[in-house]
Design a protein that fits this description.
The chain is α+β, with helices and mostly antiparallel strands and 392 residues long. The chain contains 14 helices and eight strands.
């Protein structure tokens, strides 16, 4: 537990103030395929991991717009770090749907970090007082620094159909498989975890249906607006600011190098004097601002629906997914423009733009962020067809 409990406003301010220190550790984190311990501690001290924890345990129950604000700043520092933090936010939010008895244990420390795996894998078989979990889960971002993991699996009951469920287990009961060797998002440490005959009490198991369209089994969280949103939309809106932050980081990296750069094989001794540069930076900045619009549009819609408690229409659900897809598309295009304008010397590992490019390309192929799939889903709904996904 950190010694001092920052206010929410202090936590938001700290996200911006921490950018230089977090950025300084970004290369180490990528090379070592996990977030630097000092960066984790700085985030703990700032209260960043508490944003989506219940207030009764020292959390902030922050709205989605706040998450976009903070994610943008963390994305400026290190996209993989920002991604890892957002996965902790999402997993903490999901645990907020569990029975209060489970929450009392998981949130015993307000600085607890919970990683997650939402694609069902493995099995859990009932026994007296709970169930026994076996299986393996991939892409577990932040596992190295997590205290708990929430994960999706399949409940196998005698005489009943298999049922997707979500369980919460301490990391001490799981094995970590160090298999995260990738072209991008290296610092996220998205390793695999393995469960071998792990006992899970009944209180730490909820039906998947209770999480996808929240039907909280928590009596104490039930009236909080934070848990009124469909899980996929709460998660989408919580992460989309990362991409905007990465585009802003690419802009900063480009302009830091530009004053001393000529354009090789031309007569331009100063890149800033070339019309092609003006077009590149103007286009990239406009795309970044458009991405930011979509990020906040999604967040504001999620927050408005949560505050009012009104039912979601399918068009509104699909629009949040579309906003996320378009924020991803535009931010990635902005990063690519800044990278292309940075010249051959920008490919050195010491230059942050090359890491930003690889990280944003890695995020953009995540199914939740796919611009084409999300736009297709929105278009289908606008045309009166059912969505082609349950993740909405």
């Amino acid at each position: 537990m950190s010694r001092h409990q920052p206010t929410l406003e202090q936590a938001k301010r700290s996200a911006s103030e921490l950018v230089p220190a977090l950025r300084d550790k970004a290369q180490w984190s990528e090379e070592n395929r996990r977030i630097h311990d000092e960066s984790i501690q700085a985030l703990v001290d700032a209260g960043i991991f508490r944003l989506r924890m219940p207030a009764r345990y020292g959390g902030y129950e922050a709205d989605t717009r706040t998450l976009v604000d903070v994610a943008i700043q963390l994305g400026r520092a290190d996209g993989a770090l920002a991604w890892t933090v957002s996965t902790y936010w999402i997993a903490s939010w999901i645990v907020g749907l569990f029975p209060d008895e489970a929450q009392d244990e998981v949130f015993a420390s307000p600085d607890v970090r919970i990683c997650g795996a939402v694609s069902p894998s493995g099995t859990v078989v009932p026994v007296d007082g709970g169930a026994v979990l076996n299986g393996a889960w991939k892409f577990v971002s932040g596992a190295w620094h997590a205290d708990w993991q929430e994960l999706a699996t399949i409940m196998l009951r005698p005489g009943a159909d298999p049922e997707p469920v979500i369980v919460a287990v301490p990391m001490s009961s799981l094995q970590i498989v160090d298999d995260w060797y990738t072209s991008g998002m290296g610092a996220s440490g998205s390793v695999s975890t393995v469960a071998k005959d792990v006992f899970v009490p009944d209180t730490h198991i909820i039906p998947m249906a209770s999480a996808i369209r929240p039907n909280s089994l928590s009596k104490l969280s039930a009236n909080s607006p934070m848990w009124r949103s469909p899980t996929i939309l709460a998660g989408s809106a919580a992460t989309v600011g990362i991409l905007v932050g990465m585009a802003k980081a690419a802009r900063e990296a480009f302009f830091e190098r530009m004053p001393n750069r000529p354009i090789r094989y031309t007569d331009y001794e100063h890149q800033a004097e070339a019309p092609v540069t003006h077009i590149q930076v103007g286009t990239a900045v406009m795309k970044t601002e458009q991405a930011e619009y979509h990020a906040y549009h999604a967040a504001d819609l999620v927050d408005a629906k949560a505050a009012s408690g009104e039912p979601w229409t399918m068009e509104e659900r699909a629009r949040v997914r579309a906003d996320e897809g378009w924020a991803t598309k535009l931010a990635k295009e902005a990063v690519d423009i800044f990278a292309a304008a940075s010249g051959g010397s920008s490919i050195y590992k010491s230059e942050p733009i090359q890491r930003i490019v690889r990280d944003i390309h890695a995020i953009s192929v995540h199914p939740m962020f796919s611009p084409d799939s999300n736009t297709e889903t929105y278009g289908r709904v606008l045309c009166g067809l059912p969505p082609n996904t349950q993740f909405i």
